[in-house]
Amino acid sequence: MAPPSAISSWSVPSWSVVLPAFGLVLLLTLACRRRGLPLPPRTLPLLATVCSVVLHLVPLSVVPASSHLWLTIGVDLLLVLALIRLVLWLVLELPGGLGWWRSSPRLLVQLLLVAGGALAAVLLVNRVGRLDVVGLVTTSAVLTAVVGLAIQEPLKDLIAGLELQLSENLRLGDLVEIAGGQARGRVESVTWRDTILRTFDGVRVVLPNTQVTNGILRNLSITGAVSDRFDVGLDYDLPPRAAMDLLERVVTNHPLVLQEPPPDVRVKAFADSAITYEVEVWFREPSDRVGLTLRSALLQQIWYALKREGRSIPFPVRELQRRPSDPAAATLAAPLPPQEGRLLLAGHSLFADLPPAELDCLLSHSRPVLFTVGEAIVREGAIGRSLYQVITGRVEVLKEVQPGHTIHVAELGPGEVFGEMTLFQGLPRSATVRALEDSRLLRVDRAGVRELLERDPDLLERFAQLVNSRRRELESLGNEDRQREASNLLEAMRKLFFALGGG
User: Fold this and answer.
1) Which residues contact 108 (CB under 8 A, 6 or more apart)?
2) What is the pLDDT of residues 307-337, one digit of tens each?
3) Under CATH, what is the fold of the domain 226-308?
4) N or C: which end of the chain has fewer CB within 10 A?
5) In terms of DSSP H, where are the helices of 253-313?
6) Which numeric CATH code is attached to 344-499?
7) Residue 139: pLDDT band with limits 50, 70, 90
8) What does the domain layout of the chain look like in residue ranges?
9) Residue partners of 338: CB distance under 8 A and separation at least 6
10) 82-105 pLDDT, tens per residue?
11) 167-219: what fold?
12) Dihedral sign computed on CA atoms, order 220, 223, 224, 227
């Protein structure tokens, strides 16, 4: 090592060179901020500039002679680190911001900075201090063994972290599942040693990088949609094709279920007392909470759909005694008493003038149906053969004004009717109707209206006038136009109920 007397002045670059260099960094910062590009590093250049200026301003006599050399090496090392950091920004980060290639992982930049700094420190100590650091470390076998054992696991985690940041399989914000479901959450950060996940319960999970790369990694966000699977057991008496159609109809009508990829229903197993069906649905928000809420809603709607079809979830066949039915549930799905049914139908203008015998004819082809919250009763564009009258509950009418955008049109309560256009004209449903709460509806089928018209054909004209009035109530047509529309509607209804036999 050179004696202190041999150092007659500070050997760091002149502050007249360092200050303009830092000024250039500030100008680059302003330009990059204006264009939205990655900002150049400022902390290391500022620290190196301050130390260099202070070191040039402080007289040699103020600092102990034994510290001159190490202060000089320290400031030189700061300047070299600042230069390396600027070069890394220029070569790796700025091109990524300009879109020339993918942005380099932060861990790679930090690793190159540490490696460059270590190499610069060894060279400075060797050149300025005349101290062979490499030889000192390599000649000590014990020290080399200790260092090698100490950095074995951290080095593995470092390489694994670098692999994670360089690959396309994992990015910040992705929802991932690691180690067979033991850890699941959104990626919060990937450091040189750990991968940090944030679960939906707000818990932070810290995993060594090697555990992430060595285990099975499921990225649930990479496709923008995630699937959920659950099993439903249905009666052997229900044919598998009919059961699959029912399940597909229920899950397809839910607004959160994506139509692409489409829902899928498969026969999974012939169990002891039921055929087990596996239902798979896709939804956009990859969240455990959304998935559980969606599954709960679908299972509720499947129960209601089975009730409407007169089906139920089967009990184990090893039961020795038949379980009595629930009186409340049986009452909800049972046919309406004649007096109650007549009052309900007569309460709407469409059937208000019908005598009791004709109301009973309609009731013979009608039955109460149950729908739960959020369930689609009818869907816009679907083919229908019935109208509905609300007994209890509330429903909302929704209209799709453009693909993916639906508006609220109306809210219907007890006594109100919807679906008469489809029943009397055979047209596709003009709107979607969903239950706002658990609702009980009376479904009037076309067969009942056809039987009614066979008894009294004169009713057809009256029905046509009422439907036409309902259809044109928001329009201002002249008398001649109104008569022509009513005539066209009457002809269409005559073909539907007589020429086509009820469709």
Assistant:
1) 92, 162, 165, 166
2) 998 888 887 655 555 666 656 555 566 778 8
3) Alpha-Beta Plaits (3.30.70)
4) N
5) 288-308
6) 2.60.120.10
7) low
8) 4-150, 167-219, 226-308, 344-499
9) 360, 363
10) 888 888 777 877 777 777 766 666
11) SH3 type barrels. (2.30.30)
12) negative
